[in-house]
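::Encoded backbone::
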Amino acid sequence: MDAIILSEKVKSALAKNEPVVALESTLITHGLPQPTNFETAEAMEQEVINGGSIPATICMLSGKFHVGIDNSQLHALADSKNTVKISRKDISFALAKGIDGGTTVSGTMEVAYAAGIRVFATGGIGGVHRGNPADKSADLPTLAQIPMIVVCSGAKSILDIPATKENLETNGVPVLGYKTAELPAFYSVHSGIMADYKVDSEEEIIAIAKEQWKFGLHSAILVTVPLPESAEIPADEVNTAIEKALAEADHSGIHGPAITPFLLEKVSEITAGRSMAANLALLKNNAYVAGKIAKALALAENS
């Protein structure tokens, strides 16, 4: 596909059926401040390597999707002030306009699947917005339609987590709790909501994925990983901060695409940076777990 450029390392790995993990890039372009964005992206790639796999950060540069970028490209992406956020709905527009951009969860999944990658790591998925059930992220239908293994720490805490879980169930997306029976709540280990199934190893995840794909089911498998306990914020404290941030957003008339970055920044401010630290910890941990899962998938297929 002319629209997708694979790095030589990723191209070689896919040709040899070696393990590859896709990584999104909106955390670089829109989600984290400089220079934390570059440092975190670099650290996530290293954690994928530590897990035994090859990282493939996905982004758009000059109207082409790059699957796997080098250090200079990563620096340019992190430093740029002119990037756009590319969700699933934006792909054709971005290609036509020849722009630079960071891919969201849904955008990354589309490109990664087209490139032949089946494991993807992110922080938290989008979902149903609090107080506005009609406002749903494009991540949800994408998860229902693309057969990949997606590793995350649940939905972002600023969202309506029970409604998001219900939407995933309605759309046939199995939610696995990695070494936990409970769905993680992004900044918190506990949400009070049960995952569909608890899994205790990468091999168990691969066995489920292989049966899913062999049967012809097209939804993703969502592997939810609790953040390290040392970095978590208790759910009650997080919810108090989110409610304050939501009230300020409502008072200021902030809504639509601007609401998520506003809330994340405001919650970080209210928690004196602890939510940012938790976010960074879970991003790195998820990348490591995804690296182990991709390695197990490659071993299973090559044995």
Remarks:
- The CA atoms of residues 168 and 206 lie 20 Å apart.
- The chain has a mean pLDDT of 95.
- The first helix runs from residue 8 to 15.
- The chain is about 50% helix and 15% strand.
